[in-house]
Amino acid sequence: MGRPADETSGEAHGEFALIARHFTRPPRDRSVRVGVGDDAAVVAPSPGCELVLAVDMMVEGRHFLPGADPETLGHKILAVNLSDLAAMGARPRWALLALALPDEDDAWLAAFSRGLFALAAEHGVDLVGGDTTRGPRNLCLTIAGEVPAGAAILRGGARAGDDLWVSGTLGDAMLGLAALEGRTTLDGAARAACVARLERPSPRVALGTALRGVASSMLDVSDGLTGDVAHLLELSKAGAVVELAALPRSEALDRKLAGAERSLALQCLLAGGDDYELVFSASPTLRERVAAAGRDTGVPVARIGRIVAKDGLVVNDEQGAAMAALPRAFDHFAVRRP
Ligand code: ADP
Ligand code: MG
Question: For the domain with range 12-148, which CATH number is right: 3.30.70.2750, 3.10.20.880, 3.40.50.300, 3.30.1330.10?
Answer without folding.
Answer: 3.30.1330.10
